[in-house]
Amino acid sequence: MKIVVLTGAGISAESGLRTFRDGDGLWESHRVEDVATPGAFRRDPALVHRFYNMRRADARAARPNAAHLALADLGRNPAHDLTLVTQNVDDLHERAGSPKVLHMHGALDGALCAACGHRWPAPLRMQATDPCPACNRPATRPDIVWFGEMPHHLDRIIAAIAAADLFCAIGTSGQVYPAAGFAACARDHDVPTLELNLTDSANAPDFSRRLTGPATRLVPDWVASLG
């Protein structure tokens, strides 16, 4: 069976990573959107780096949970062809053992030069004045897709959804596009859709089947049901 799984912040919340959209949406009295845009980086790169340094430290301290481990098992199952897509910027899927993960919003463990586009592994703490290893310019930023930027791997994701036998979203808010439109895309291609979430997402009507509850319970049960 060809399966496309999209994961969101809800799957990592049970590993202790904060879900800003489900809280007050604030960090140090700043809206998250104000520390996650190219304009914010131009205005106050030190503030943006402080935010992502904190998130990077939190992610490295977190551990994969039962939902991450179940998806890793699914990815290794020769009876299924899994395309695992995540909106998350942590590496919990990889540390759980998932062999291939499409990070559509980038990753905390990556650094990007805003001047020349070179990428390299991020240290635990970064600052804008860190020189790029390729061009030596002080233009270091997190390798994160910010609001207003184009997510990664979209062509590959859409093609996988169109060819899938099942599309499943886990722990997503259904508020952030283009990911929030993936279920509708699957429906347009007559692909069955399943939502596993703590509560119904904003785009819940786009799913043909929905199960509510914690990801650490729902995902292992669902993966076991696939055989």
From TrEMBL:
NAD recorded as keyword: yes
Annotated SUPFAM superfamilies: DHS-like NAD/FAD-binding domain
InterPro entries the record matches: DHS-like_NAD/FAD-binding_dom, NAD-dep_sirtuin_deacylases, Sirtuin, Sirtuin_cat_small_dom_sf, Sirtuin_class_III, Ssirtuin_cat_dom
Cofactor(s) named in the record: Zn(2+)
Residues binding substrate, per UniProt: 52, 55
Cofactor note: Binds 1 zinc ion per subunit.
Domain Deacetylase sirtuin-type, residue spans: 1-227
Catalytic activity annotation: N(6)-succinyl-L-lysyl-[protein] + NAD(+) + H2O = 2''-O-succinyl-ADP-D-ribose + nicotinamide + L-lysyl-[protein]; N(6)-acetyl-L-lysyl-[protein] + NAD(+) + H2O = 2''-O-acetyl-ADP-D-ribose + nicotinamide + L-lysyl-[protein]
Protein location: Cytoplasm
A Pfam family of this chain: SIR2
Superkingdom, taxonomy of origin: Bacteria
UniProt binding sites for NAD(+): 8-27, 87-90, 171-173, 197-199, 215
Function field: NAD-dependent lysine deacetylase and desuccinylase that specifically removes acetyl and succinyl groups on target proteins. Modulates the activities of several proteins which are inactive in their acylated form.
Record note on domains: 2 residues (Tyr-52 and Arg-55) present in a large hydrophobic pocket are probably involved in substrate specificity. They are important for desuccinylation activity, but dispensable for deacetylation activity.
Name of this chain's protein: NAD-dependent protein deacylase
Gene assigned in the entry: cobB
